[in-house]
């Protein structure tokens, strides 16, 4: 007889990660796909800063366990009646939607329009490290900053990636190099600088020091593009000074402080936000672009052009290991991605 319940990791209270109830093992109802939803059997998951933000302490209690988690690799178990892109047995990877139940569960419902076919050359753990960071990097570079994604199509153009050793930065370096940009990544520790150079960055500078003198030491007066993946307000003045006239800045990090946009006026600089969940949250008309992007990325992975950024694996998928993964991210010293695999 088929079970109607499934294992998951969830929360009732928003607590510090060292509290044993910050994430707990739960048994919840197994969902049924309708419309364009896929029911995916979860094989591996990855943890991102958004998981930490959503789980962070706040004065609220859930009546039912809240399941979070926005990076999944798995196998299609069932399809909704309106699905046209996938069939049962397909191996997939995706980042899910912020306004639906997350993927830290044995089975997960997701709209097929934001799902891609898993890269054939990767196992599930390696694939689970990619979706959220890759979509963010791709959309930030090619949709928001308007950089051409054609291989080698940006000779002589420069990009500064702030926080280049993290999950998004690790993919952004590889995509920017593929597109022909000269990449300057920021890092502050020897191990993170080594990671950034290993992914293909041409230069590494320190984000705790002024950018312009470091760029000048490299023979650069300014940069054409800036992709900010860390503390927008902290780097704002530095970015305004380093960006070239008519350059473009994209950030993925919200700010609690007001930003002085006037600093960008004389250079006619464009500033734009990137939020990977916009398409799925609002079910935009171009939502299916994420399906296409993940498939294109899978091709780049299988050709050896982009590599996965797993730096730590934990198993099985349970509350104890997820609490460990969250603590690793909260330490602020994480390089690459942490992945969990196998429900037991």
From TrEMBL:
UniProt KW keywords: Metal-binding, NADP, Oxidoreductase, Zinc
CDD domains the UniProt entry points to: AL_MDR (cd08252)
An example Gene Ontology molecular-function term: oxidoreductase activity
InterPro entries from the UniProt entry: ADH-like_C (IPR013149), ADH-like_N (IPR013154), ADH_Zn_typ-1 (IPR014182), ER (IPR020843), GroES-like_sf (IPR011032), NAD(P)-bd_dom_sf (IPR036291), Zinc-ADH_QOR/CCCR (IPR051603)
SUPFAM superfamilies named among the record's database cross-references: GroES-like (SSF50129), NAD(P)-binding Rossmann-fold domains (SSF51735)
Signal sequence coordinates: none
Family statement: Belongs to the zinc-containing alcohol dehydrogenase family. Quinone oxidoreductase subfamily.
PANTHER family noted in UniProt: QUINONE OXIDOREDUCTASE
NCBIfam families for the chain: adh_fam_1
Protein name listed in UniProt: Zinc-type alcohol dehydrogenase-like protein
Annotated source species: Alicyclobacillus acidoterrestris (strain ATCC 49025 / DSM 3922 / CIP 106132 / NCIMB 13137 / GD3B)
């Amino acid at each position: 007889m088929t079970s109607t319940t499934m294992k998951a990791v969830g929360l009732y209270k928003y607590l510090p990660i060292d509290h044993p109830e910050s994430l707990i093992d739960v048994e919840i109802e197994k969902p049924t796909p309708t419309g364009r939803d896929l029911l995916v059997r979860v094989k591996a998951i990855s943890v991102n800063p958004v998981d930490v933000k959503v789980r962070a302490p706040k004065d609220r209690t859930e009546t039912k366990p809240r399941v979070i988690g926005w990076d999944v690799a798995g196998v299609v178990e069932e399809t909704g009646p309106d699905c046209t892109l996938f069939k049962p047995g397909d191996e997939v990877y995706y980042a899910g939607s912020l306004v639906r139940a997350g993927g830290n569960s044995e089975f997960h419902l997701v709209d097929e329009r934001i799902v891609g076919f898993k890269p054939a050359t990767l196992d599930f753990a390696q694939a689970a490290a990619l979706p959220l960071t890759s979509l963010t990097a791709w959309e930030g570079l090619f949709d928001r900053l308007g950089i051409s994604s054609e291989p080698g199509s940006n000779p002589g153009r420069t990009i500064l990636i702030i926080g280049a050793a993290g999950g998004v930065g690790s993919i952004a370096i590889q995509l920017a190099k593929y597109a022909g940009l000269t990449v300057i990544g920021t890092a502050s520790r020897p191990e993170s600088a080594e990671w950034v150079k290993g992914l293909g960055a041409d230069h590494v500078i320190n984000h705790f020091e002024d950018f312009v003198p470091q760029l000048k030491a490299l023979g650069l007066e300014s940069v054409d593009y800036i992709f900010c993946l860390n503390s927008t307000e902290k780097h704002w003045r530095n970015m305004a000074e380093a960006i070239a006239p008519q350059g473009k800045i994209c950030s993925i990090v919200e700010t609690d402080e007001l930003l002085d946009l006037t600093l960008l006026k004389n250079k006619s600089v464009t500033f734009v936000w990137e939020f990977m969940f916009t398409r799925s949250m609002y079910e935009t008309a171009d939502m299916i672009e994420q399906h296409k992007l993940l498939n294109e990325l899978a091709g780049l992975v299988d050709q050896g052009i982009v590599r996965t950024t797993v730096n730590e694996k934990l198993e099985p998928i349970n509350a104890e290991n997820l609490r460990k993964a969250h603590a690793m991210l909260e330490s602020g010293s994480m390089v690459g991605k942490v992945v969990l695999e196998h429900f037991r």
